[in-house]
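[job 4471] stage=fold_predict status=RUNNING
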Amino acid sequence: MKREFKVAALAAAITLSGCASDSDSTASLPLETNQSQTAIQIDGMKQSIDLAEETLSSSYKAELDWFASIQIRDAKKALAEAKEYYAEFELDPSEANSSSGFFSSKTNLQAAEEGIAQFKVHISKAESIRTEVLTILEDAFGYREQLAAINAAKYYPKTAKQLEQNIKRLVDYVANEAADKAINAQPELIRKQRALEVKTVTRIYLSDAQKELKRLKIANVSMHAPETLARAAAAVTAAQAFIAAEPRATAQIIDKADEAMFSLKHAQQISNVVKKLKAMPEKDYERHVLSYEKILLEITLALGAEDMRDQAISKQGKNLVNHIKGNLQGEQETMLAQQKVRSELIDEKAHTAMLEKEIAKLSAQLLATKQAPAATVEKVAPIKNATVAEEADTTTVTTATTNEAS
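[job 4471] inference complete, writing structure tokens
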């Protein structure tokens, strides 16, 4: 469109006369000064365009096109127009001050500058919208980050996509200056986001236990170990409830999931034993009981306890536990005694070191005391000598005075 205007302008220039191509301000300046200023302006425009392109690239990293799609669209359009006008005088500086169109009073340079200015306005508006969105929808974006962290879209892509569309709608409310709508719609969005978080965490950490529980039910484990299976099912339910209450307590969730899986495996083992018992002929009952008693005996002898097979198996187990507790208590008492001895030894060493230090101090004082009298004698002797000399000098002076009088 701009080039069509220029063609029309050229046609009009042929028909009409006296039309000046340069603006009054540039025409009144000396040629060299005008060219120098134009060159500076062209260079500045090139730098502005380069900076604008860098800013636009950075805006995508900050998702400004997602937060404020209309503003980024308009910013791209303004930058494209600025580059188009710049292209008119990029290789021919004389075109910088030419009219940008037949019906325009702006030069190509002015039109390019206006495009850059509009670009900055749109980018600034987009950044403002992003800041406002993150403030108003802080909770929703917090859940959005958490869903991304646990990769909810991998497990429930359809639901994740729907929630992303929902939050985008709220973002558009803010961008279109309808923040109240976004605020009112946020609680329902958060409810759905949290539900997806719980669902995803459950699938990540508890799906194996849930599948195992389902398998045990299908395998009719409840026929052989109903109580054990019921306890295992309760452990799975407890883990689910904990996840629903604390979906981000990962360490505790892992512990509860492990406990549930342990209970399920225990139920399977009990079921296996019961099934074998049910299928076992009566003549094998004794052999079966003796096999368990043999295991208890091996443990008993390994721990240094007496053979307790003359007692009921249940009592053997209790006595074995008491024996282990007694040994542990004895070991603990021994450890405490050793720690006490070590502590006393450390205290004794510290006391000895203190005594040695005190002895060294007293020895130094004693040595200083022994050296003190000798020093005193040396000081007294010079004093006596000085007194004798002084008396001799006095006698000499007196004699001299008497001689002079004579």
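[job 4471] summary: The CA atoms of residues 67 and 172 lie 7 Å apart.
[job 4471] exit 0
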